[in-house]
Amino acid sequence: MSTPAKHKEGAKKQYKCAIITISTSKYWKKEEGETDVADLSGEIAKELVTENGHEVVYYTIVPDEEDKIH
Fold it and tell me: CA angle, 20 as apex, 8 and 26 as ends, to 5°?
């Protein structure tokens, strides 16, 4: 068996994922209490993760500010 095949065989089959969208406008809409903040890229990312058998354990939107992105 090849080394890559051995590695894949022992690898986890399901992963826990965090999705963080960086968008100042969406962040402030959410902070101001809007309940229907459209985050298309975040929704697509969540869909792709779950469709491939993984779990989204954390999702958030943060502003495009250096101190908030770390």
Answer: 155
- Interval 3-26: pLDDT, tens: 877 777 777 789 999 999 999 999
C-alpha distances (whole Å) from 14 to each of 21, 42, 53, 60 are 22, 20, 6, 21
Tokens of 19: 């999705």
Q: How far apart are CA 35 and CA 26, in angstroms?
A: 11
Residue 24 has a pLDDT of 96
Closest Cα partner for 57 from 31, 28, 18?
18
- Any idea how long the chain is? 70
One-letter amino acid at 54 equals H
